[in-house]
């Protein structure tokens, strides 16, 4: 009996040794816990980081809580403008006449004059690089027939994209309690906008003629591709930043964030590490 128990013990020990050896020798397909980057701490009231290609959410903080987009509103203003151009076969080289309601709008400005003519292309650069509120009003009036009609198209586009927590009342982003969005919705709108080659080209440009991009992401962050900053005293600082490394493009949305660029870069660093992209310290 003791001999049999001894033999069984040897067999069990041998089997256990084989299992341990096999486990240690087998290649691991998943990253170890040490390889997973730590979650960044951000100051934003609301934020989200997504894979711009797949839409995968890599980080979120109160992403479905309503906030105020300020001038990141102009992402939708530009997107609807480009949609109208495509639907009506309008060239971006076509000129529009600046209407009186676009002159002297408060906030950031292109300093447009009543009756002067500007191409749609120049207006797009003006609203996305220097955040011209007058340019946004001019585009809305000319492309929509009226500003109200254009804003209705903005809301229709948001609804089509499934942005149920977004509502626009103007094309500029000037504060209004009924003009709101969420970090998640703004990420969805931005992903859609970046599919348009003209939009992507505009927001990724550091300078165009006499317009210098206020979004430092495009020249300060490695691989920066866009998109838009925003600020009003009530809304706070808002930022949609994007960047691409290897085959991964990230889109980061921050609402009401006093450390907007620092937080955006921290989040995108985190995202690229998570995705295994190179050139991240």
What does this entry look like structurally?
The chain is α+β, with helices and mostly antiparallel strands. It has helices at residues 2-25, 74-87, 120-129, 133-144, 147-160, 183-194, 197-203, 217-220, 260-274; strands spanning 46-51, 57-61, 95-97, 117-119, 207-208, 211-212, 224-232, 236-245, 248-255. Helix 2 runs parallel beside helix 6 (183-194) and helix 4 crosses helix 5 (147-160). The chain is built from 9 helices and 9 strands. The strands form 3 sheets. Strands 2-1-9-8-7 form a 5-stranded antiparallel beta sheet, with helices on both faces. A two-stranded antiparallel ribbon has the order 3-4. It is 40% helix and 17% strand.
Task: Sum up the structure in keywords.
9 helices; five-stranded antiparallel sheet; alpha+beta; 281 residues; single chain; two-stranded antiparallel sheet
């Amino acid at each position: 009996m003791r001999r049999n128990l001894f033999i069984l013990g040897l067999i069990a020990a041998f089997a256990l040794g084989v299992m341990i050896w096999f486990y240690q020798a087998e290649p691991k397909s998943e990253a170890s816990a040490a390889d997973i980057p730590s979650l960044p701490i951000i100051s934003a009231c609301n934020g989200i980081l997504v894979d711009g290609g797949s839409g995968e959410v890599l980080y979120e903080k109160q992403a479905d809580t309503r906030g105020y987009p300020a001038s990141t509103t102009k992402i939708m203003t530009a997107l609807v403008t480009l949609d109208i151009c495509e639907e009506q076969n309008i060239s971006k080289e076509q000129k529009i006449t600046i209407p009186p309601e676009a002159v002297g709008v408060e906030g950031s400005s292109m300093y447009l004059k009543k009756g002067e003519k500007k191409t749609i292309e120049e207006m797009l650069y003006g609203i996305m690089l220097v955040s011209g509120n007058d340019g946004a009003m001019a585009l809305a009036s000319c492309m929509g027939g009226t500003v109200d009609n254009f804003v209705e198209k903005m809301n229709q586009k948001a609804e089509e994209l499934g942005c149920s927590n977004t509502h626009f009342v103007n094309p500029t982003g000037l504060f209004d309690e009924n003009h709101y969005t969420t970090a998640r919705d703004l990420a969805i709108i931005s992903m859609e906008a970046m599919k348009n080659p003209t939009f992507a080209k505009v927001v990724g440009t550091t300078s165009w003629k006499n317009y210098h991009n206020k979004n430092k992401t495009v020249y300060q962050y490695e691989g920066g591709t866009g998109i838009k900053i925003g600020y009003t005293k009530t809304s706070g600082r808002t930022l949609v930043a994007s960047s691409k490394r290897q085959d991964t493009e990230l889109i980061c949305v921050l609402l009401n964030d006093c450390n907007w660029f620092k937080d955006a870069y921290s989040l995108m660093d985190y995202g690229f590490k998570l995705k295994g992209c190179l050139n991240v310290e």
